């Protein structure tokens, strides 16, 4: 499984339908304020900058419903860290922030960390190591660059012409590129995979220090643990035991090895 996967955790219902024009569409309802605003403001502008998102066919403000283009071809986890994805994310991260757009506020609060630690019930040494990651996490949220906030494989697709498209923008916000790069790596990843991805991103985007970015990817991986566990518990998702068991098995060794990057 991909422990960094934030898909299937939203509150909106998503359905595939055929509309009156014969197009297969996606109906998503009710969407949050950030995603609803995204498709009515940022999406068109970002598309012109080479950041492909689903076409908005129609919307209903009262129901908070979006009718979106259906993207037919999924992207497997093993292919999501391709140059296509990295280049598109790089364009997003370099795009100027518009103060008029609505953003999700990304943060790793001490209370959220504590809640995740209670749920994870990992050994105290591991808990202390995860606290160290949280204490270093301001670097993820202090940057002013745009981020999708949810770039896992489940939120990528390909059109019939092969064009890559990124959807599910309810976590559209600002922060470090590491927030979007961490989910491209399967599972928790390793120090070397973080360095390798940081090097590729820097080569393709022409910016950022490799060492600092690799560290930010590692911190983002740790932060996602809290995000996933707290969300699954709060929304009473059936996948909670699966993720909990996976983290309890894999986190201790990962933390012990990766904490050295801080």
UniProtKB/TrEMBL annotation:
<dbReference type="InterPro" id="IPR002575">
    <property type="entry name" value="Aminoglycoside_PTrfase"/>
</dbReference>
<dbReference type="Pfam" id="PF01636">
    <property type="entry name" value="APH"/>
</dbReference>
<dbReference type="InterPro" id="IPR011009">
    <property type="entry name" value="Kinase-like_dom_sf"/>
</dbReference>
<feature type="domain" description="Aminoglycoside phosphotransferase">
    <location>
        <begin position="75"/>
        <end position="206"/>
    </location>
</feature>
<protein>
    <submittedName>
        <fullName>Aminoglycoside phosphotransferase</fullName>
    </submittedName>
</protein>
């Amino acid at each position: 499984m991909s422990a960094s996967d934030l898909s299937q955790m939203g509150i909106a219902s998503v359905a595939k339908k055929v509309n009156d024009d014969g197009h297969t569409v996606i109906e998503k309802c009710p969407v949050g304020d950030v995603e609803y605003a995204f498709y009515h403001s940022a999406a068109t502008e970002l598309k012109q900058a080479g950041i492909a998102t689903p076409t908005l066919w129609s919307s209903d403000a009262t129901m908070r419903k979006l009718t979106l283009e259906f993207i037919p071809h999924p992207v497997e986890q093993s292919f999501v860290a391709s140059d296509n994805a990295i280049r598109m994310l790089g364009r997003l991260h370099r795009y100027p922030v518009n103060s008029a757009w609505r953003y999700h506020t990304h943060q790793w609060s001490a209370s959220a960390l504590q809640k995740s630690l209670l749920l994870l019930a990992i050994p105290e040494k591991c808990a202390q190591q995860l606290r160290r990651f949280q204490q270093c996490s301001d670097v993820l949220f202090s940057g002013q660059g745009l981020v999708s906030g949810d770039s896992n494989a489940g939120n990528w697709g390909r059109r019939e012409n092969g064009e890559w498209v990124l959807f599910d923008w309810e976590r559209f916000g600002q922060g470090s590129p590491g927030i979007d790069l961490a989910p491209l790596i399967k599972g928790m990843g390793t120090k070397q995979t973080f360095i390798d991805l940081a090097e590729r991103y820097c080569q393709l985007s022409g910016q950022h220090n490799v060492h600092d970015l690799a560290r930010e990817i590692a911190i983002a991986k740790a932060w996602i643990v809290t995000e996933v566990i707290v969300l699954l518990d709060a929304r009473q998702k059936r996948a909670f035991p699966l993720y909990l068991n996976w983290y309890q098995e894999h986190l201790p060794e990962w933390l012990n090895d990766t904490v050295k990057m801080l």
